[in-house]
Amino acid sequence: MSSPDPTELRRIKWRCRRGMLELDIMLQGFFEQRFQALDSQQQQMFTRLLDYPDQSLLEWLSTHPDNADKDVKDIVEQLQHFNSADA
What is the torsion angle, in degrees rounded to the nearest 10, for the CA atoms of residue 7, residue 26, residue 29 and residue 76? Predict the structure, then answer.
């Protein structure tokens, strides 16, 4: 499992900062505690997830993961599990 270089990691961490506090908490916590343990495909899925608008992310992570695009559904489910275990 190869990890992105430190510059790329900082860029991904910065992208976890969103316009909504709820998303900041969910994404940043997952990034800090789980991102480096993901395999490279899952890491790519996570960074792809960050391309989506805040409203879609909030819907998927809060209530409707089944509505997530199939390309990111696995990481959405991991994020939900991570955040529900943290609650």
Answer: -70
Domains of the chain and any CATH numbers: 6-86 (1.10.150.250)
Token readout for 51 is 């391309």
Contacts of 1 by beta carbon, 8 Å cutoff, 6+ apart: 38, 39, 40
DSSP codes joined into one string, the chain: -----HHHHHHHHHHT--SSHHHHHHHHHHHHHHGGGS-HHHHHHHHHHTTS-HHHHHHHHHT-GGGS-TTTHHHHHHHHHHHHHH-
Q: Which pLDDT tens digit goes with each residue over 35-86?
A: 999 999 999 999 999 999 999 999 998 887 788 888 899 999 999 999 887 6
Q: Measured in whole angstroms, how far is the alpha carbon of residue 8 from the centre of its chain?
A: 15
Nearest to 16 by CA among 32, 2, 39: 32
